[in-house]
Specification:
This protein has 152 residues and is an alpha/beta fold. The chain has three helices and eight strands, in the order αββββββββαα.
Length: 152
């Protein structure tokens, strides 16, 4: 084989090998989010990889998939309104799918207290009434009008 063909084959091998190595540095996290008491799926729950701008919302069956998660140990958080947030730590390997399921417990929403202070003076708004007028046909016959808008 000539030297030219060897160099060409080497370049082609690197052209295939390097992109596959670059893209293989991520993994996928998938799983299901359900109610801990009933086992019912929680559609619309948010699942996030903490410290990154990567996440997903669950579908109607409570399933989610997060692709393109960098490899390594990751902290995954699931939250849904009316439920306690749950956090799990997982290891994401290159080119693999890591399954992380969540069972969220119901909780009471804690709202901040609102304190209203000060004195106010009660006031009544003026009532606006409708003006009513009665027009009979005799008044219309003698009125100096030529069209409907003038009559109004």
């Amino acid at each position: 084989m000539s030297r030219f063909f060897r160099i060409l084959l080497s370049l082609m091998a690197f052209g295939v090998l390097i992109p596959s190595l670059i893209f293989a540095q991520t993994g996928t996290i998938k799983g299901k989010v359900v109610d801990a008491n009933t086992g019912d799926p929680l559609p619309g729950a948010n699942v996030l990889v903490q410290g990154m701008e990567v996440g997903a919302a669950t579908d109607v069956d409570g399933n989610y998939t997060i692709s393109g998660v960098p490899i390594g140990t990751r902290t995954v958080m699931a939250r849904f309104i009316g439920y306690k947030t749950q956090i799990k730590t997982v290891d994401v390997a290159a080119g693999t799918v890591t399954e992380v399921n969540f069972e969220l417990q119901e909780t009471v929403l804690q709202l901040d207290e609102i304190v209203v202070t000060g004195a106010g003076v009660a006031s009544e708004k003026k009532r606006l009434g409708n003006t009513v007028a009665t027009i009979n046909t005799k008044a219309l016959e003698t009125a100096p009008v030529t069209n409907f808008s003038q009559m109004l």
